[in-house]
Specification:
By secondary structure, this protein is an alpha+beta fold. The protein is built from 13 helices and eight strands. A hairpin with a 6-residue loop joins strand 1 and strand 2.
């Protein structure tokens, strides 16, 4: 605690968030839209992120900005799940402004399901669903913040992948691996990756950003020829690159979390003091929870921090044991296996409690897949860059199709469920 003073305010912050969730689960603040349901004739919404579609509906997370009380529009706040019919064949863009008189419906759990969907959405501060069969759409978004431009750039990259000669299924898989977009991914593919214990590669995580940064770092190593200036310049460029990647994937919470964590780790290496990875982990968690307290209940937040903590806590000891007792030709494989085991050991309670399952062959599947992910990411980046170049785009698409098909077969091979 003394060497990591941030641990104390971090634990106090977590305790405060838990108390808030237990004693004030609705978290209804002043001017929250739910206070005006009885008098509101219609609401205005600002579309944010796209969610997984339902059977006959396309769904989005939306901010409630105004309500009409019969005389004039009044400001309000809150978030809802905004759904439009699939039959409209219309895709709502990020930051689009829509107006609807549809009555908000309380989110309920799905029948015959053990998953507490209602509580899950409450912790995202989403309490109602809007089924808008009739709505009006404003043509021009008004709030063009950084996230708006990041989302548009992310959409541009997805369009470039969709313009490629990849098969339709592999286009969705490539978008998921590079950009973290799983909305178009086939449900069966998701299940096979989850059952094999490699679902984490379908979202932009520390693994993805770390691999991309490592690719660029190969070329930046030559900056050391400039001496101490090259040392500092290399790390500054890598920090900028990390935040560019977070921007490219749409400034999602997971990408911002990884960018913050890696930036803090690289910044500490610029000082004369010895870097403490666990302290960096605590500091990044404290900053993230301070900005968005409800992230504490986000399963990706829990899994990512527990996985990194497990690796940091166990890897030094396991590496010493491996260097001492394992044949030097098997050292690399053994260290990869120990890293995977460390992460899985610390995330096991969350996986079992939240998903009610445990992938039996997770170690084998990760050993097969993880070294391959870097190659797939490199090929996907090449495809995005050269998608409009004849012959090169065709050749790259063929290579990537083969790699992605092989990846799916590896997932199915280690799926025993």
């Amino acid at each position: 605690m003394i060497s990591r003073p941030v641990a104390i305010p971090l634990f106090l912050l977590i305790a405060g968030i838990l108390l808030l969730d237990w004693f004030a689960p609705a978290f209804v603040v002043g001017e929250h839209y739910s206070l005006h349901l009885g008098q509101a004739e219609s609401f205005r919404y600002e579309i944010r992120e796209e969610n997984s579609p339902k059977k006959n509906w396309l769904c989005y997370t939306a901010k409630v900005t105004h309500y009409f009380d019969g005389q004039k529009w009044q400001k309000t706040k809150g978030k809802v799940l905004f759904c439009i019919p699939r039959s409209d064949k219309r895709h709502l863009e990020y930051a689009s402004l829509v107006e609807s008189s549809a009555t908000p419906r309380l989110i309920e759990n799905y029948p015959q399901s053990n998953f507490d969907y209602k509580k899950f959405m409450q912790r995202k501060r989403v309490f109602h669903t809007i089924y808008a069969r009739n709505y009006s759409l404003s043509s021009e978004p008004k709030n063009k913040d950084l996230q708006y431009y990041a989302h548009n750039f992310n959409t541009l990259l997805k369009q470039r992948i969709n313009r490629s000669e990849l098969t339709s299924g592999n286009k969705a898989l490539a978008s998921s691996l590079l950009l973290g977009d799983k909305t178009s991914l086939d449900k069966q593919v998701r299940l096979s990756f989850s059952a094999a214990g490699i679902a984490h590669i379908l979202c932009v995580s520390g693994l993805h950003i770390g691999l991309i940064v490592a690719m660029f770092d190969i070329f930046l190593k030559y900056l050391h020829l400039l001496g101490i200036k090259g040392f500092y310049l290399r790390r500054i460029i890598l920090i900028i690159l990390v935040w560019i990647i977070a921007f490219v994937v749409g400034c999602t919470p997971s990408s911002l979390r990884v960018a913050l964590m890696l930036s803090l780790a690289m910044l500490t290496n610029l000082t004369a003091y010895r870097s403490d990875t666990i302290n960096v982990l605590f500091v990044s968690a404290f900053i993230m929870l301070l900005c968005s307290p409800m992230l504490l209940f986000d399963v990706s937040f829990q899994l990512s921090y527990l996985a990194v903590f497990g690796i940091v806590a166990c890897k030094p000891l396991s590496d010493k044991w491996i260097d001492k007792y394992v044949n030097r030709h098997l050292t690399s494989v053994a260290k990869t296996a120990s890293t995977t085991m460390s992460a899985q050991l610390f995330t096991l309670p969350i996986v079992v409690c939240r998903f009610g399952t445990f992938p039996l062959l997770f170690l084998i599947s990760n050993l097969l897949v993880l070294p391959f992910v870097g190659i797939i990411l490199f090929t996907t980046i090449c495809l995005v860059c050269f998608v409009d170049v004849p012959y090169i785009s065709t050749m790259t698409a063929c290579i990537l199709d083969f790699e992605l098909t092989l990846l799916q077969q590896a997932a199915q091979l280690t799926d025993l469920q």
